[in-house]
Amino acid sequence: MAILIRNASTVVTMDAARSELSNADIRIEDGVIADIGKGLEHTGDVIDARGCVVTPGLVNTHHHLYQTLTRAVPGGQDALLFGWLKTLYPIWSRFGPEEMFISAQIGLAELALSGCTLTSDHLYLFPNGARLDDTIAAAQEIGLRFHPTRGAMSIGETDGGLPPDALVEREAHILEDCIRVIDTHHDPREGAMVRVGVAPCSPFSVSRELMRDAALLARDKGVMLHTHLAENDEDIAYSEAQFGCRPGQYAEELGWTGPDVWHAHCVKLDGQEIALFAKSRTGVAHCPCSNCRLGSGIAPVRGMRDAGVPVGLGVDGSASNDAGNLIAEARQAMLLQRVANGADAMSAREALYIATRGGAEVLGRDDCGRIAVGKRADIAIWDITGVESAGSWDPAALLLAGPTRVKHLLVEGRQVVTDGHITTLDLPRVTERQKALARALMS
């Protein structure tokens, strides 16, 4: 299928030169960017981008889609990480396949409307017959590029872990199911719509042996590794008490560093750990809104970036954010680095880079995250003629003024959002079902 995006006011390419083009066209053929220029000839479908800024689709490197069913839960609204988890675990234990599927649809739709074309997901509990396949089916229906990770918890309260015993799995079963979902769904090819990762939940919910075996399995299968790390002071204290070392050292000892690994949060990394991640090209998913909501702190993103650590953005779960708006997440990342390090610590364009090409690099997707010939046609089109941008001298600095909702969104050259509305899903119907499921959980 051929599409021409015509007369974009500004195209923010995120190419090697960070080029920004005025009054430009983008021609798309078979899901790939075929040409960029002015006055391009075309005989297929046309999207009029006058009055719009065009960017690469945003990339979300950490999420828990199932949590869209548990936003703003009383008892967890004002808790730190561990207390928040203990409030939510019993509710999540009542989920099943439909809850996983519908909550994923809602979370993915919310991401799409905020300009996201590629998202990861960390699903680490599987109650009542739920499977990773449920969320993959949701992503395939909506049409977003998807990098789900098969998470796991294996140490329950009885054995000194944080999660209740009812939510943990046998480690042999975890590894067997990782093999199943990889063999069934993972696509290593360029342009893949689904890639699968291996993701034990956290050092405080799985054993040392599972962390080690998961790394060995992932590398045998050629897939990426993901987990939570160094999220807050409680996390650091647990690591030092249980393992006798800081989280970065624990990760390195078990094979959890390298360009095929990315860790969520990393709020409390110290200088040595940052240097380790930079040297090994270990990625970080920065989740600023969730870190604020849970009082975890401000991640040292400026120090990470300066050292050479690959950094992307994550909205994290909608029970700890409680939103799933990725362009708003990029703005928050920019503002927090300025709070911590001064007004010149991070520009709007650097934060947008982290939200696009930076995230694609963290997920190992050299084919995404930029507008360049030969790259996948994952493109966000932002209308700058509205009230949010009125009076803006630099509309390409989207994070300073807005908008925060995309006008059009293309994934692999297919339109997922048109004129601000999801085209691949009956969103009002799914929203009503989501509300009904939430009411049932409340009761």
Level-2 CATH architecture of the largest domain: Alpha-Beta Barrel
Spell out the CATH superfamily of the largest domain: Metal-dependent hydrolases
What is the CATH C-level name of the largest domain? Alpha Beta
**What's the number of extended β-strand segments?**
17
How many DSSP helices?
Answer: 14
Structural class: alpha/beta
**Computed Rg:** 21 Å
Fraction of residues in H or I helices: 25-40%
What is the percentage of strand-forming residues? 15-25%
What is the distance, rounded to the nearest whole angstrom, between the alpha carbons of the first and last residues? 48 Å
Please, could you describe this protein's structure?
This protein is α/β, with parallel strands linked by helices. It folds into two domains: 2-57 and 370-422, Urease, subunit C, domain 1 (Roll); 58-362, TIM Barrel (Alpha-Beta Barrel). It is 36% helix and 21% strand. It contains 14 helices and 17 strands. Strands 1, 2, 3, 4, 5, 14, 15, 16 and 17 form a nine-stranded mixed sheet that branches. A four-stranded parallel sheet has the order 6-7-8-9. Strands 10-11-12-13 form a four-stranded parallel sheet. Helix 2 (97-113) crosses helix 14. The mean pLDDT is 96.
